[in-house]
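In the laboratory, one determines a bound structure by crystallizing the protein with its ligand and collecting diffraction data. In a computational setting the workflow is compressed into a single prediction: the sequence and the ligand go in, and a structural description comes out. We illustrate the idea with NAP.
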Amino acid sequence: MSSVVYNRVALIGLGLIASSMYWAMKRGGLVGEVTGYARSDETRETARRIGLCDRVCDTALEAVEDADLVVLCVPVGAMGKVMEEIGPALKPGATVSDVGSVKRHVIEAVSPHIAEGVHFVPAHPLAGTEHSGPESGFAELFDNRWNLLVPVEGSDPAAVARLRQLWEGMGANVDEMEADHHDLVLAVTSHAPHLIAYTMVGVADDLRRVTDSEVIKYSAAGFRDFTRIAASDPTMWRDVFLTNKDATLEILGRFTEELFALQRAIRTGDGEHLHDYFTRTRAIRRGIIEAGQDTAAPDFGRGQS
Ligand code: NAP
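The predicted complex, in structure-token form:
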């Protein structure tokens, strides 16, 4: 049984996350009318063609008019500017949320433009793919994935509870987290791994001794999973690293130390160190599977290839 959580929702930015939200909200019968806005004519035209949003508007101001919930679905570095533009147009009692991958920066950029009587409840769905744009979304993206709500000082508990209800209706599990802690956790679980994947793919590209065709042909041996991550949207990830600088640098510092330790173990033939280390990391993988956050199928369920 579903019920309408918000009568009017406005999605600002119409890429992977916004389009998945639209399909998931409609699937759950959670909303009345959904308006959408994207900055380019091309994206707005695509959205109209595929029926993404009940109404696609030519300006952000038009899209947010009379909205009960406005969700900022643009790259982290663009959130402040977008909020500055729409801030004065929001009705009292409306809630502003976002889906940005970094929280402290978004809170600092958006908060100054939140008018009296408007609620701000930042959020981050821990779900995504390497695809972007309005045609990449699908209703199941958030099913059984976590969404972290990051209430700011003074966030209205009723507004937080309502947003939680929306995300749960879209299939997500919801937790609350403090902004700095969120940024550190995500630096470990997402941001540093992406940087490492980008680096590994870059190294293979530079290494002319291994020909391109060999890299592609034998990629199932591990490299393929790096290439999937390294295909993620360049604008989004540039913004993530520029705005979650401290936490990412801290994790990368630790990563480099561990990498050097493993490098030394290989050089000195310290098999015990390597074996102990890999035993510990294997247990982490098991924990992720037991928590239902990935498949235990061989080769991530890809089957024979
Ligand atoms: P996306 O598919 O690339 O879509 C981004 C949207 O933002 C597009 O509609 C784009 O407009 C608009 N946009 C880009 N730059 C802009 C700017 N400077 N000013 C105004 N609008 C701009 O991105 P996404 O994957 O949905 O990501 C959106 C947000 O979700 C990001 O903050 C990201 O950190 C977060 N997030 C992403 C993932 C993921 O895996 N992808 C997961 C969780 C959270 P045009 O199409 O008109 O260019």
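Strands lie at 6-12, 31-37, 55-56, 69-72, 95-98, 119-120, 123-125, 146-149, 173-176. Keep in mind that any predicted model is a hypothesis to be tested, not a measurement.
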